[in-house]
Amino acid sequence: MAPTPRTPASRRLVRIAILGMLLAVLAGVSLCVGAVSTGPAETFEILRHGLSAQPTPEEVAVLHYRVPRTVVIVLVGLALGLAGTLIQGHTRNPLADPGLLGISAGAAAAVVAGMYFLDANTALAMLGLSFAGSAIAAVAVFLLGGVGRRAADPIALVIAGAAVSALLIAITTTIVLRSNDDVVLDKYRFWTAGSVAVTDWQAFVPAIPFLVLGALLTLGSGASLNLLSMGDKSAQSLGLNVGRTRLIGIVAITLLAGGATAIAGPIAFLGLLAPHLARALVGHDYRWVLPTAALAAAAILYLADVLGRVITVREVPAGVMLVLVGVPFFLAVVRRSRFTAL
Description:
By secondary structure, this protein is mainly α. The chain has 14 helices and no strands. The two termini are 26 Å apart. The model is unreliable at 1-5 (pLDDT under 50).
């Protein structure tokens, strides 16, 4: 959809700049807040000088726990924000989201199955399994609810995603119940809750090249998504190769959602919330919506993670906090949207 005259480029740039500054502030707060809190000046000095010969609890908290966690939030937030926007653009469905469409469940099921049957516990192995599970789930959901005569139905993919998610969750639960391995059970809890509390750099560094590739494919598809928003036939008549565009989209979604799930487990609703916030800020032109949604998703994830650390004595995972916010938002979108009858 073309930019609206009421949202000029200068205003969009200002709003994106403000969102970027907010993201930087939240990153700073993330580095300061925790079980052992540190002030901004103290945190800066710790980052500047590193660990001392006899590390203090504050140094360990900032450098060992919060720095990698802050990086993980950026990676996962950007990936899921882009993936959610890409899915909504390809399906023209305001309810689409990697979690709601079963893509995250596919990644989680593949990881748990690989751990149980193949004893795959390394970061690289889990990354590969996550990509495979995401790809299989994405293709299944798109085939069941996103192609053919039902492609224009905005709720068809949600129904297909719910069915695929239920099947994958049942498979995952069955594997876990048959396992006596505490490691598998711990990993299952991790995938179920969705947590950014990752301290091992080797657990997420291997995913970065794949996330970068997925982001580049996505950010380069803004013009194509604008054409797809007019319908497949109209886009095709304007010269867009719809089939190739869909294929590139599925690859990008798999890279982004699979990589994010491999790092932090399935985090639902983030890919749903961020595109709507981005459209409220910059309009409906996907060339602007995509980068704005990426920044918005990272900011939302920072906020959810920080709140999860401070609202209770025992930390609440960011995935759980996002569900508490995401469910009311999802219901509000359903009520405000007009869907074609099934």
